[in-house]
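Risk register update: the risk of archive-format incompatibility is retired. Evidence:
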Amino acid sequence: MVAPATTLCTPLGRRVKVLEYGAGRPVVFLHSGVGSAGEWKQVFSLWPQGYRLIAIEAYREGTGPGVAGRRSLDDYADQVYAVAQHVGVAVWLVGFSWGGATALRVATAAPEVVDSLSVIEPEAYALLRNQDADAYAQICGLRDRWRTQARAGRWREAFEEFIDFYNGPGSFARWPAPRREAFLAVQQSRGDLWDVLFDDSRLTLDGLARVAAPVHVVEGSQTSAVDHAICELVRRHVPYAQHTLIDGSGHMMPLTHPESLTRALLAGIDR
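Archived output:
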């Protein structure tokens, strides 16, 4: 199924590409930090009629919004605001990984645009700083090693550990060589994205406590201690939370467990 592309102007005067099809209740999908709107292809193919599905392509023409090295979650939230203006009503917002952190920021900064919120292992690392020292140290270690390798131009080494952290040991090495090379070329153009997710001025527990929309937290049973800790914090601090565990899944469930994820998202909104 191929969704037509539309380019929207954002409130900050930028442009964002979205993939959109269907009619009915608007559902906005946010992809991961190293991914693209294509992460939702399988989920879209399984989704029932009666919904207007909109996947944001955060990296239009290979680059993200704002200025590389000085981006914040508000640069990505700006893209969601553009979609809310486009559809003219509050949306059901579904955010995966990096997109989950963006979704949490939107729900705290502009609650009027969010009717319902589903976050799939949101990478809101800032929440861990004063809440889980072990998980915070683990993700900081991954970030710092990534930066050391990237600054030395060792992009393969940087992303091999990164991909294996979220997909399991040996995952990157099993990718076909052309896929690895294409992936590394794209990621180098995006700059250092870590700081955005460690920004505790935009990702706070006090902010979560003010989220007015119902929140559905989805995590995999085989996920990392870091992602489990973040999901637990979100569940504990938002006022209206439900939780679904996808059996046998790690972090990349839109790609590895699309059927289970789609069922969980639809069941959550029905509840």
